[in-house]
Design brief:
Layout: H1 4-13, H2 22-36, H3 54-69, H4 79-85
Helix pairs in contact: 3-4
């Protein structure tokens, strides 16, 4: 659902903490994939979930990258941006 507050809290609690950015999220996932060596990934989404077309997602992703590099009160990434970049 794109709960950036919850995601940020997890990244900050790690030792050492991950950056509170989309890149930090990506690194967190990569590190855990290396540790767990999963065979597959399953995700449940709410009824009516849709991901925007790649063209609009790409422009949204670049906006999210800029937002995640800015001050903590900057716009947080959307669920679609997290899916596309992380």
């Amino acid at each position: 659902m794109g709960d950036w507050a919850g995601i940020s809290a997890v990244l900050a609690r790690c030792s050492p903490p991950y950056p509170l950015t989309l890149e930090g999220c990506h690194t967190f996932i990569v590190d855990w994939v290396r540790r767990m060596r999963p065979v597959y990934l399953m995700a449940s989404t709410p009824h009516g979930f849709s991901l925007p077309p790649a063209a609009s997602a790409a422009s949204a992703a670049s906006a999210a990258s800029a937002a995640s590099a800015a001050a903590p009160d900057a716009q947080t990434p959307t669920a679609a941006q997290l899916l596309e970049e992380v």
